[in-house]
Design a protein that fits this description.
With 182 residues, this protein is mainly α. 77% of the residues lie in helices and 0% in strands.
Length: 182
């Protein structure tokens, strides 16, 4: 199956070159997305998946919702690889673009919340400008139980998926292991 996937990637890459030469960037972008999905699901190489999602977004217009979707995948994987600054920049950029769209403005809150959580992974001082007051108070007090309760409270209002849970557990671990950071 891996050999088939690698051969498929080679063929799709040739198609990308062909469509790029023709100036058909939207089709080339869709092919980059297909390659990214192969790397995600079949080859488990999220770094290469990130590269192809970024290339797809580059071929699409900046304010295009599909480009934003690609960049959100890049941000998710960047955070998993602990490339927090990159992920933060993407979440904030997509959040800003979402605010400009009447249909997407309600999603902006989620993207800014992701950025805020990642700010906390980098530095608590960055987080003070980005995360909700309740979570910060618990961080500053080094109150692991209070932090956990605040997360549970937020989860009861808006369900947290596995990505959020993973990032929040890293923050909780940081509080427990490095109380001087807060």
């Amino acid at each position: 199956m891996i050999i088939i996937s690698i051969e498929a990637i080679k063929c799709i890459t040739k198609a990308i070159e062909y469509y790029t030469d023709m100036g058909r960037f939207t089709v080339a972008a869709k092919h980059h997305m297909t390659i990214a999905e192969i790397y995600e699901t079949e080859l488990a190489d999220i770094e290469k998946a990130m590269q192809h999602y970024e290339q797809a977004a580059d071929f699409l217009e900046e304010k295009n919702q599909i480009a934003n979707k690609c960049m959100l995948s890049v941000a998710k994987y960047a955070a998993q690889l602990e490339q927090y600054e990159k992920a933060i920049g993407i979440y904030e950029q997509v959040g800003e673009a979402s605010l400009a769209s009447p249909l997407m403005k309600y999603s902006a809150k989620e993207y800014y919340f992701c950025a805020a959580l990642l700010h906390t992974c980098v530095d608590v001082l960055n987080a003070q400008h980005a995360i909700k007051k309740t979570l910060l108070e618990k961080l500053e007090e080094q109150d692991v139980d209070g932090f956990t309760d605040a997360v549970k409270e937020y989860d009861s209002i808006s369900r947290l998926d596995s990505w959020y849970t993973n990032i929040l557990l890293r923050i909780k671990k940081t509080i427990s292991e490095n109380p001087d950071l807060c």
